[in-house]
């Protein structure tokens, strides 16, 4: 007897999209049967033509709690995740106070998150000047890897690493096969914006800064043997050195984000600082090249870089406004809208937004509809369409660059470990550790 059987004519599995019946027992996928297979279950749901996707895994989320909970917190961030079909997030180590740069700070983060999470949550540690001795203890406590910046982070409590410090940190991580995830912009090629407008801001953070940083990372990854992942690639200038290093066997991977795939610099309105992020949204032509890199596998993940802030920090001056885009709840719909227009299918979206991030974090039980995996599932209506209204967003500060856009698709139900997520009930999300998920 199964606990649950979900039937759909559009089940997205690692082998592709097909009619199937997904059987769930004790929170895991027991089997994937033919669509019309007779099965005994305590509960059965037939989705018809509504697709069944694996729950999304978002490895780039700034929750900000404790310390900046008025920006975002675990309760609101995980509500937004569940509403958007995301069943697993990994929290970034900065923007919270204290940042997660030692075991005591991780304890503070765990205490703040306890009992608040509607989806499963893992944690990144941070690599900052002076905390080299804390990296192995944090790894042993269960962080999924370590984030660093090569340029200023925007918050004084999380400073950037100089190239020599970066190499030392990579050598330390290589000793225990840890993962370094990197905000990759060369500070020598960045400048203060010459004025308050978006063109000024865009010129201040050129694609060459990303490329230079990626070239440095590839050299150091090859020299140390460490695993390196490039965060939020916005510039297509990065793609050639990334591809070259990957072909040479260097352990370097990279991601991009929904806003770089869906939005373009040409769309940014005067004073529209909801669009500000670092690195910046670039041209439509650049966006086309990022899609090509996803198709080629040079970019392996699409994750949100959900980086919210109170509306008061999004002042109309691009030089002064806080940089960050909130899209945790909207990422699936945004990417599907553009992917569909470009001829990609739901299996592509699931590969980029579920399987790829799960693989990056080493989550063997996440990221696919397959026997033995967690029954983290999403009923997604790919043909629905709805205009984005900030009033319908679950994250704490409903500021979004997607306001007013009509996006395709709708999340009808999100299941976590085989049970529907009820945002009105007590949260059921678990804390995750590498090797145990």
From TrEMBL:
Kindly provide the name given to this protein in its UniProt entry. allantoinase
Query: Keyword set for this entry?
Result: Hydrolase, Metal-binding, Zinc
Q: Which PANTHER family match?
A: ALLANTOINASE
Q: Does the keyword Lipid biosynthesis apply?
A: no
Recorded family membership: Belongs to the metallo-dependent hydrolases superfamily. Allantoinase family.
Q: Which InterPro entries match?
A: Allantoinase (IPR017593), Amidohydro-rel (IPR006680), DHOase/Allantoinase_Hydrolase (IPR050138), Metal-dep_hydrolase_composite (IPR011059), Metal_Hydrolase (IPR032466)
Q: What's the top EC group for this one?
A: hydrolase
As cofactor, the record names:
Zn(2+)
Q: Which organism is it from?
A: Nonomuraea longicatena
- Any one Pfam family match given in the protein's UniProt record, by short name: Amidohydro_1
Q: Which residues form the Amidohydrolase-related domain?
A: 52-421
């Amino acid at each position: 007897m199964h606990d649950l059987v979900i039937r759909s004519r559009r089940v997205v599995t690692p082998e592709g999209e097909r009619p199937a019946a997904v059987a769930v027992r004790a929170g895991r996928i027991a089997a994937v049967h033919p669509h019309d297979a007779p099965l005994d279950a305590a509960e059965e749901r037939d989705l018809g033509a509504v697709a069944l996707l694996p729950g999304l895994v978002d490895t780039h989320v700034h929750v900000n709690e404790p310390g900046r909970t008025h920006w975002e917190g675990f309760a609101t961030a995980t509500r937004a995740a569940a509403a958007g079909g995301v069943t697993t997030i990994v929290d970034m180590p900065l923007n919270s106070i204290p940042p997660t740069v030692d075991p005591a700070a991780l304890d503070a983060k765990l205490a703040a998150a306890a009992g608040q999470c509607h989806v499963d949550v893992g944690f990144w540690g941070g690599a900052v000047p002076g905390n080299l001795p804390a990296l192995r203890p944090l790894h042993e406590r269960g962080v999924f890897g370590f984030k660093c910046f090569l340029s200023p982070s925007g918050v004084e409590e999380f400073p950037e690493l100089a190239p020599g410090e970066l190499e030392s940190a990579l050598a330390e991580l290589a000793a225990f096969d840890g993962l370094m995830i990197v905000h990759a912009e060369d500070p020598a090629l960045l400048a203060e914006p010459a004025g308050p407008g978006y063109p000024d801001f865009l010129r201040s953070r050129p694609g060459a800064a990303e490329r230079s940083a990626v070239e440095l990372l590839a050299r150091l990854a090859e020299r140390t043997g460490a695993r390196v992942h490039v965060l939020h690639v916005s510039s297509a200038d990065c793609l050639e050195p990334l591809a070259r290093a990957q072909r040479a066997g260097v352990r370097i991977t990279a991601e991009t984000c929904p806003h770089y795939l869906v939005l373009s610099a040409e769309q940014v309105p005067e004073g529209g600082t909801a669009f500000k992020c670092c690195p910046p949204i670039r041209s439509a032509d650049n966006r086309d090249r990022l899609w090509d890199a996803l198709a080629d596998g040079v970019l392996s993940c699409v994750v949100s870089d959900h980086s919210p802030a109170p509306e008061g920090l999004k002042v109309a001056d691009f030089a002064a406004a806080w940089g960050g885009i909130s899209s945790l709840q909207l990422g699936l719909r945004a990417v599907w809208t553009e992917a569909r227009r470009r001829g990609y299918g739901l299996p592509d979206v699931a590969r980029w937004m579920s399987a790829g991030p799960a693989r990056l974090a080493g989550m063997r039980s996440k990221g696919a509809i397959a026997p033995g995996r967690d029954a983290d599932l999403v009923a997604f209506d790919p043909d629905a369409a709805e205009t984005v209204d900030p009033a319908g967003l679950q994250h704490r500060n409903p500021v979004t660059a997607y306001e007013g856009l009509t996006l395709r698709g709708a999340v009808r139900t999100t299941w976590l470990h085989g049970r529907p997520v009820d945002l009105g009930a007590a949260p059921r999300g678990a804390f995750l550790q590498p090797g145990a998920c």
